[in-house]
From TrEMBL:
Family: Belongs to the DapA family.
Gene, per the UniProt record: dapA_1
Protein task: Catalyzes the condensation of (S)-aspartate-beta-semialdehyde [(S)-ASA] and pyruvate to 4-hydroxy-tetrahydrodipicolinate (HTPA).
Pathway: Amino-acid biosynthesis; L-lysine biosynthesis via DAP pathway; (S)-tetrahydrodipicolinate from L-aspartate: step 3/4
Name used for this protein in its record: 4-hydroxy-tetrahydrodipicolinate synthase
Catalytic activity: L-aspartate 4-semialdehyde + pyruvate = (2S,4S)-4-hydroxy-2,3,4,5-tetrahydrodipicolinate + H2O + H(+)
Subunit-structure text: Homotetramer; dimer of dimers.
Pfam families referenced in this protein's UniProt entry, alphabetically: DHDPS
Keyword presence, Lyase: yes
Active-site residue list: 138, 166
Any one Gene Ontology molecular-function term assigned to this protein's record: 4-hydroxy-tetrahydrodipicolinate synthase activity
Site-annotated residues for Part of a proton relay during catalysis: 49, 112
Highest taxon of the lineage: Bacteria
Binding site for pyruvate: 50, 206
Amino acid sequence: MPRKGEQFAGLTVALVTPFRDGTVDEGRLKANVDWQVDQGTAGVAPCGTTGESPTLSHDEHERIIDLVCTQSAGRIKVIAGTGSNSTAEAVRLTKSAQRSGADAALMVAPYYNKPTQEGFYRHFATVADACDLPIVLYNIPGRTGKNMEPETICRLAEVSTIVAVKESTGDLDQASAIAAGCDLTILSGDDSLTLPIMSVGGSGAVSVAGNIVPADLTAMIDAFRNGDPAAALQRHAKLFPLCRALLGLSSNPIPLKAAMARLGHDTGEVRLPLVELDSATMPKLEQALADYGLL
């Protein structure tokens, strides 16, 4: 049986926000969108964790989403990051993304204020009631401080415009419970777990590594979805060390931006409180890139 939100299956890339001299490098951002289109990527997600959304001003946040939607021009789906720990702000950002032409909103669970499970439910239900845009829930307790339990996610699945979940708990039991309990499309939020999550009912990923190897990730996802798990496993084995390096050497997106700069795809700048990858760690990243065949 098809799942809700199946139109968002496959690979969505969590776009970095390129900075140059402290401001958003709009030219590089547009070039990154075009490159993802050329690579055959299904979707892009601006203004998420990888896009350093906590450091963006409100004007920058809305401008980036608008620019990505305009540059995409219907060639690739845009799942815009519109989450906030303020429900009113999440409503405002989601309405703005809808006006810009986004295909969906990627909404992180409210962070820092640690809502109850009822608070999680009312937060997302309020945004859904205020906007018509399809919503992809984003559950990442390692950053938000509290898990949105499977029962809450399955309850939210009853809201018509809540169609998918980006599952970033690192817990296959949680992914399995969601798959068994509701019909949301499940997207992996951890590149190294994409294939395991697909094996218990997932349909794709919102990916960090897709900023540099999108075609390979798409091939892995497609292989599994097309009934060739052996080919998918072979690709997973090659991707795994690179994914672990990008997400394990330092806080995301520090290693990713360093890798993109090394590969000629980005300026490499991050905004405080993030800092550039230190010189002692850079050789480990370069080794991972070389082992993969990128250098």
